[in-house]
Amino acid sequence: MIELGEHRILGPKLVCETDDKVRLIRDRPKAASDRQKSYASLERHDIEYSVGDFVFLKVSPRKKVVRFGRKGKLSPRFIGPYQILKRVGLVAYQLELPLELDLIHDVFYVLILRRYWSDPSHVVSVEEIEVLWWNYGTEEGTWEPEDSMCQQYHYLF
Q1: Which helix (H) or strand (E) holds 51?
Q2: Are residues 134 and 117 in the same domain?
Q3: Both 85 and 109 in a single domain?
Q4: How much of the chain is helix, strand and coil, in % rounded to 5?
């Protein structure tokens, strides 16, 4: 016997409605996940370099002070460019490093490398300084490359 306030819950219409609601509840999180994944995938892409490409190497703050002699906010974030010698595994590359970096391992993770795009405007001319030689007048001063003068007379700089 059915009492007052109770209804029968059976019937094909109710079963179909409940089944549709359950399907909707299951599909919505998957749709939201797919949507978020598509937005995130736009910004992410595999970074690949070819052998022979030139890349910059990211310098960590601790190594800037120790290895490069510069400190503070004006120190470089990237050094280089260095040439890629070979690919090591899926996400690492071996670089051709100069002799002053021989204490550093030459294989680096792909995320600490940045591609170098060659541009003629990146070429910096050699700085020259005017040298006033001892026992000569100011008219006889010569212009010399700063690098060679620093090497020969490092105590003056």
Answers
A1: none
A2: no
A3: yes
A4: 40, 20, 40
Q: Are 58 and 114 in contact (CB under 8 A)?
A: yes
* Amino acid type, 28: R
Is residue 82, in this structure, part of any structural domain at all? yes
Residues 6+ apart with CB under 8 A from 7: none
pLDDT tens, position by position, for the chain (157 residues)?
Answer: 555 555 556 678 888 888 999 999 999 998 899 888 888 777 777 889 999 999 999 987 665 545 565 667 777 788 889 999 999 999 999 999 998 888 889 999 999 999 998 887 777 777 888 888 888 888 888 888 888 888 888 887 7
pTM for this predicted structure: 0.54
| Residue 33, in any domain of the structure | no
Q: What is the dihedral of CA 58, 59, 61, 64, to 10 degrees?
A: -160
Question: Cα(81)–Cα(61) distance, rounded to whole angstroms?
Answer: 19
Identify the domain containing residue 99 by its residue range: 54-121
Domain identity same for 116 and 148: no
H helix or E strand, kind and range, residue 23: helix 12-43
